């Protein structure tokens, strides 16, 4: 009986650790507990609170700020109409500056540009400069965006870097690129 109880506790501990790691991971489809394409009801279940979004003029999206486990997130929802002409709001983009979230390769807030390039050497990466950088003549803060594209899933991870250090991460759809 003790052996069975010990094995059960060991199994549950492993499951809890695995779930906690998944809840703190970033991939091209999810950011922590949030998954791209989730309907509002699914996001409300995670947040344990009501989410208010609305179409604003010609805008096809609405952005909300949310807090989950002490971390701030920016969630962008799109307004989609299905074949029955019913409107559904789905999660289109997720971003955060939360330092506890990392990719499976260990990249997170505070990681450096060389670490990203090394971790994703064999993946589809695009590095671009902030277009306003030159207009501002701000030589102190060099802002770059590193995009890791998942063409199969039509999603991407954007790493915003300031002076070669990641300051924000976004997971989003990459449709039409």
What are the low-pLDDT stretches, counting only 5+ consecutive residues below 50?
5-21
Biggest sheet, spatial arrangement of strands: 4-5-6-11-10-9-8
Bin the strand percentage: 35-45%
Compressed to H and E, one letter per element, the order equals HEEEHEEEEHEHEEE
Query: Separation of termini?
Result: 59 Å
Helix content: 10-25%
How confident is the prediction overall: mean pLDDT?
82
How would you describe the overall organization of this protein?
With 177 residues, this protein is of the alpha+beta class. The protein folds into two domains: 28-96, no CATH class; 102-177, Beta-lactamase Inhibitory Protein, Chain:B, domain 1, CATH 3.30.1450. It is 24% helix and 38% strand. It contains four helices and eleven strands, in the order H-E-E-E-H-E-E-E-E-H-E-H-E-E-E. The protein has helices at 2-23, 40-47, 113-119, 131-136, and strands at 25-26, 30-31, 34-35, 61-68, 71-81, 87-96, 102-103, 124-129, 143-150, 155-162, 165-173. The chain has a seven-stranded antiparallel beta sheet, covered by helices on one side. Strands 1-7 form a two-stranded parallel ribbon. The longest helix has 22 residues, at 2-23. The chain is globular. 20% of the residues are buried. The model is unreliable at 5-21 (pLDDT under 50).
Features:
globular, 38% strand, 177 residues, single chain, Beta-lactamase Inhibitory Protein, Chain:B, domain 1, two-stranded parallel sheet, 2 domains, alpha+beta, 4 helices
């Amino acid at each position: 009986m003790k052996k069975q109880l010990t094995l059960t506790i060991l199994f549950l501990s492993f499951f809890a650790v695995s779930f906690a790691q998944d809840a703190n991971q970033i991939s091209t489809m999810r950011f922590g507990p949030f998954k791209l394409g989730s309907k509002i009801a699914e996001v409300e279940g995670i947040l344990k609170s009501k989410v208010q979004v609305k179409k604003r003029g010609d805008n096809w999206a609405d952005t909300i700020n949310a807090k989950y486990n002490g971390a701030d997130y920016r969630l962008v929802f799109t307004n989609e109409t299905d074949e029955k002409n019913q409107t559904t709001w789905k999660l289109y983009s997720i971003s955060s500056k939360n330092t506890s979230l990392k990719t499976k390769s260990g990249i997170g807030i505070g990681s450096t540009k060389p670490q990203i390039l090394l971790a994703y050497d064999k993946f589809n990466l695009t590095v671009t400069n902030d277009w306003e950088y030159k207009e501002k003549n701000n030589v102190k803060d060099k802002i770059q965006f590193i995009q890791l594209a998942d063409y199969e899933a039509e999603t991407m991870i954007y790493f915003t870097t300031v002076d070669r250090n990641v300051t924000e991460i976004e997971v989003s759809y990459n449709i039409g690129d």
